[in-house]
Specification:
alpha/beta, 2,3-Dihydroxybiphenyl 1,2-Dioxygenase, domain 1, 2 domains, four-stranded mixed beta sheet, 21% helix, 32% strand
Amino acid sequence: MQKSSFVHVGLTVSDIAATTAFYNKYFGFELEMEGVFPPEFIQAKPMLYRQPEGSYSNFAFLRSPDGVVLELFQFEPLASAEDPVWNRPGYHHICLKVDSCQKMYEQMCADGLGDCFFFPPDNMDPEGEHHWVFLRDPDGNMIELQD
């Protein structure tokens, strides 16, 4: 068996700058690299990208404090987003460990982002030592937080 290690997660977003600012402010992700996949690059892989002729994508890599990387894509043209469906096969959400779900919830609510949350932080165990909460990033990508 081949050994493997986790490299990155790819997210398509509508605004790389806004997404970078969100993940930096709340979760400490740092911009590592950015660039553009020109139309020639996208069209050279039609079975992979499945984009109309002339499409291109800005991209950026954001690195978390513990080394996990988000690869962001901002396509032109951008298709409309769909809500994730729990019982549909495919990627659904990312999970981030934070010091305190409650403090993160309170900070984001104070910043006017309370409507991003599906519910307030809740206990994960009977003793109430660990908590979890689900929210959406600026494009609706789902994030689970645990402490």
